[in-house]
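queue> holo job accepted (adenosine-5'-triphosphate)
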Amino acid sequence: MTITFSETQKNRLTDLGWKDRLVTEEFETAEQREKAYKKIEKAAIAKNRERLLRLIGETHQPQLCNLEQNLSACLREQGFTQVTTPSIISKVFLERMSLDEAHPLNRQVFWLDQKTCLRPMLAPNLYAVSRQIMNFAQTPLKIFEIGSCFRKESEGKLHLKEFTMLNLVEWGTPMEERLERLKELADIVLRAVPIRDYYLEEEFSQIYGDALDIVSREGIELASTSMGPHPLDSAWKISCSWVGIGFGLERLLVCREEDEGIHRYSKSISFLDGARLNIK
Ligand code: ATP
Ligand code: MG
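queue> job finished
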């Protein structure tokens, strides 16, 4: 009878970012397995150390921060204005997004008290700020924010409790140009990442109804798009046509780096810039 790596061993090696042969490797004895494990762990630790030393000695900035900066610069070049709004939002704002107590997404919200929560999305603040800007500026109006969002998720390889959303919106896109413009904006952002291989897929959104998702070659949802006029708009006193896209920055990174675990690129005290920190 042969044995494979134990679950603890597999988990440790997965944490260290080791992707090769973990599941299929077989051994005759526990001793042989131990020896093989030690060898792989040592090599994996060396790789992680190398990455961390490159960060400390050369790049000085995690890819998440770097991507955020690059995408911000890219959108500003396209005439988009960046805004920055609070992570704590009111229950009223969620209700205006149709996210009342009966809504399935409501169970994913981190409530701070009866009236406030950590934002699960950027859209409500973007609606609010844009409404105010429209009082003194004309459409077309291009706005974006990059910031943390929070959702209770049964965590897996693609879901974080705190993740970084890039949400852009263009108010006043002519009705007949919306689809083309969405494709163009998706292309501008993904080229800046860069991610070249992706496709659009029709998807039902619990907030926006029928919508288009942007999906990577591996089938990972990178972003969701939406268009207006939309029934939600009237709650924010907005009546023009528009297009919007929400990207998850950590998803863009796992996809670009052809990695498996989104946690490696997240805001974390266990991982830093794609590397495991506990490598003693
Ligand atoms: P999924 O169906 O994959 O759970 P979603 O459709 O609920 O995602 P959206 O509300 O469309 O997510 O959010 C826009 C983008 O934000 C997603 O396309 C994804 O890239 C990213 N995103 C959403 N939830 C998470 C999460 N928990 N962790 C990391 N990224 C996320
Ligand atoms: Mg989505």
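queue> The chain has a mean pLDDT of 94.
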